[in-house]
Design goal:
heterotrimer; A mainly alpha (about 170); B mainly alpha (about 475); C mainly alpha (about 120); B: about 475 residues; mainly alpha; C: about 120 residues; about 0% strand
């Protein structure tokens, strides 16, 4: 086994494991912490795919900023004693669970049988495509317009946050 | 390296409206408590953008490395969105003043949402479609909850946001699968390789996920659950905007992705869309009968209308494209008109929203009742009004595409819809009651609604006005 | 290639190991004389009355959201800074427009008093 395969299996194990832990924890804070672990494992996976920029963003934005927001929301809602949350299985839970399980199986089936459908056009440039330089060059020339639109999108989000969440209005 | 900066001078409608959004925001932030300034600024912005759109109705040129189309089809769609935004803003002023929530941000958000819609219609790349949908949706999530003290508004905002975020997940997953199989997000390039790609199961799943995401935005069954609650809880003028502008934008994307890019006529995707259309027509119309709240009734009716228009998409031919464009032009004005009149009648704490509150309206306010009757007749698709020709064109497209069964379902469900639309008309004209409008309707709002009604009549008498323009966009 | 990340990995592992080892060493060698009294919240003073998990004010959330939005701006600055020399004047104008639009947002937030701790 090469270094990459070992890393891939190790990181995949951590990411799937932490994702499972996240959805099975009772305490929302614990869930959030497992989510952070999951984000780090994903960042590692991106690195093994030579996507350095995405890996950095994953840690900077997701593991950093978004998680702060998660924890704030958990504390903002402050649901209280989690142990009281009901554990009963009802048909209302079984049906969605069954549906999502079915969807998962379907996707796994198709993805495993449709590997040949994926074109592998970029493989020889794989090492350069994920670098910050490459992303930057693409972003500021060919994808210049989407980039500018992003600023408008962020502006709308800023207004939305103030309109909905500011304590006192004027 | 290509320099796309100069393209900003050419993408006039979108850029000018975005600049006006910024100016309005600056004005709103600089002068506190002067929302009237924002009101006027946003109206001027819309008029300017509409002027640029009219000027570029002719040819269409790709800009920014084929990211964005300027002119032609997109300009026509722009006019629909701008019309919807204009009416919504004019109607909102009094409505918000009455609720004491008249704030400048409201207008800025409407303008930004309109920019998002224009991006959706002009997109030549899946990435722009995504950004456009997000820009529109984020503004609408906020607008839905704009009346912060109202519990129902909060509920509707949250519901819309959660389900909308879920739909965004589908959209992104779909785009990722399409990008993975086609190797590009450019619509023209994807369209070129569609014949091969349509045998690729991953690509088809991606396309299916796009159907889910777009169907959510147009509120088609089974992705319609949010619509009644959101329309009921949101400020009425925003419900009007959501059910017209946002829906029109989603249909503009539907047309540009599924007909102009994928050319789905006769494929599996077309069957899927036909089934969604049929179910939407049936569920929307049958459920609307049972409603007593007018906002909910219009929500279900808008689901049914999404179904009618989807049958044009499922047909996937030129008749379908032009039919949808005509349908949208009519639908936007009749629906916003109906919601506008509801917003006049409505009183604090969601009072005066039921059918019975409209009993005898014609004796108190004959003009308002007449306008409402026009909108209801048009929504029901009764001949001299534009709504009839909208239905006629999309059903004709379905028949031409060999989907006669879909057209038959459409006609039968339209008959059902006549019941609940005319119920309101009967109540207004033939029932005694004390229906009244507490405060005087402002002159601009009255003028705007009257113009919408006039437009419906003109369009109903001369449908070729729009059809000829629309046909020009789709000739190959 | 991946081998290039070995120094980073070594540093991460070293940092984590240092933290864990120090805490464990402290535990191992530190004096431990636990008494009942030492386990109470305060040896003298008030008894704790309720859970320490108070409901947060929405003001914190407001700050966090605004932080994220401007954080994303930084994400775009990073590749821009790396490629700046190759982009020339156009690159500068592009970023100037982007930042100006967000600056309008900042001005709005500031004027509306969303940054004040009222």
């Amino acid at each position: 086994m090469t270094l990459e395969t070992i890393l891939f299996y190790a990181l995949s194990f951590v990411s799937v494991g932490s994702a499972l832990m996240m959805i099975t924890r009772r305490s929302p804070v614990m869930s959030a912490l497992y989510l952070i672990l999951n984000f780090f494992a994903l960042a590692g996976l991106y690195l093994t795919l030579h996507a350095q920029f995405i890996a950095v963003i994953q840690i900077l934005v997701y593991a950093g900023a978004i998680m702060v927001l998660f924890l704030f929301v958990i504390m903002l809602l402050n649901l209280g004693d989690e142990k009281k949350l009901s554990e009963k299985m009802s048909y209302k839970k079984i049906i969605p669970a069954g549906l999502s399980f079915g969807l998962l199986m379907e996707l796994l089936y198709i993805v495993s049988y449709a590997k040949s459908d994926l074109p592998l056009t970029h493989i020889e440039r794989a090492t350069e495509i994920g670098t910050v330089e490459y992303v930057g060059k693409a972003l500021f020339t060919d994808f210049l317009f989407p980039f500018e639109v992003t600023s408008i999108l962020l502006l709308a989000a800023i207004i939305g946050a103030v309109v909905l969440a500011k304590k006192k209005l004027d | 390296m290509n320099n796309y900066l100069t393209d900003f001078w050419q993408a006039t409608p979108i850029v000018s409206l975005a600049i006006f959004a910024l100016l309005t925001l600056i004005v709103d932030a600089a002068g506190k408590d002067k929302p009237v300034l924002s009101y006027w600024m946003s109206l001027i912005g819309i008029v300017v953008a509409a002027g640029f759109s009219v000027a570029s109705l002719g040819a269409s040129t790709p800009l920014f490395n084929t990211m964005l189309a300027q002119g032609g089809y997109s300009s026509y769609c722009n006019l629909i969105f701008l019309g919807s935004a204009f009416l919504c803003i004019v109607l909102s002023r009094n409505y918000l003043e009455r609720l004491q929530y008249h704030r400048g941000e409201f207008y800025v958000l409407i303008i930004l949402a309109t920019v998002g819609m224009m991006l959706m219609a002009a997109a030549l790349d899946l990435m722009i479609i995504f950004l456009g949908i997000e820009l529109m949706s984020i503004c609408l999530y906020v607008l839905a909850g704009f009346i912060r003290k109202k519990e129902k508004a909060n509920e509707s905002s949250l519901k819309y946001f959660l389900l909308g975020a879920f739909a965004t997940g589908f959209l992104l997953y779909g785009i990722a699968l399409i990008y993975g199989t086609a190797g590009t997000t450019n619509l023209a390039l994807i369209g070129k390789s569609f014949p091969q790609l349509s045998h690729n199961s991953l690509f088809m799943i991606g396309a299916g996920m796009l159907i889910v995401a777009f169907s959510f935005k147009v509120a088609a069954v089974p992705f319609h659950m949010w619509a009644p609650d959101v329309y009921e809880g949101s400020p009425t003028t925003i419900s009007a905007f959501m059910s017209t502008g946002a829906k029109a934008a989603a249909f503009a994307v539907f047309v540009s992705v599924f007909i102009r890019t994928f050319d789905i006529g006769g494929t599996k995707l077309s069957d899927v869309l036909a089934i969604i259309a049929a179910v939407s027509m049936i569920v929307g119309n049958v459920t609307a009968i049972a409603q007593n709240n007018l906002k909910r009734m219009l929500a279900y009716s808008s689901i049914a209308h999404a179904g009618y228009m989807l049958s044009g998409i499922a047909a996937g031919n030129i008749e379908g494209e032009t039919g949808i464009l005509f349908y949208l032009s009519a639908y936007v004005f009749m629906n916003i008109g109906a919601f506008g009149i509801i917003s006049w009648m409505e009183q604090q704490d969601d009072k005066k929203l039921t059918f019975d509150d409209y009993a005898g309206l014609s004796s108190q306010h004959p003009a308002v009742a007449a306008l409402m009757a026009i909108f209801m007749f048009s929504l029901a698709g009764i001949p001299p009004f534009a709504g009839f020709f909208g239905k006629y064109y999309v059903f004709l497209a379905a028949v031409k595409a060999g989907m006669t069964w879909l057209a038959i379902i459409g006609v039968l469900t339209s008959l059902i819809s006549v019941y609940y639309y005319l119920r309101l008309v009967v109540l207004m004209y033939f029932r005694d009651g004390q229906a009244s409008i507490e405060e005087k309707v402002s002159a601009p709002a009255m003028a705007a609604i009257s113009c919408a009604a006039l437009f419906l009549i003109v369009l109903g008498l001369y449908p070729s006005l729009v059809v000829d323009i629309a046909k020009g966009f789709f000739k190959i | 290639m991946l081998e290039g990340y070995i120094p980073i990995f070594v540093m991460l592992a070293g940092g984590a190991a240092f933290g864990i080892v120090m805490v464990k060493l402290n535990e191992l060698f530190g004096p431990k004389h636990p008494t009942e009294e030492k386990y109470t919240t305060y040896e003298s003073g008030m008894e704790p009355v309720k859970s320490a998990r108070e409901r947060f004010s929405i003001k914190f959330y407001m700050v966090a959201v605004l932080f994220i939005l401007f954080d994303i701006e930084v994400v775009f600055l990073y590749p821009w800074a790396v490629t700046f020399k190759g982009l020339g004047v156009n690159g500068f104008i592009t970023m100037a427009v982007f930042i100006f639009i967000l600056l309008v947002g900042y001005y709005y937030v500031w004027r509306k008093g969303a940054l004040e701790w009222d």
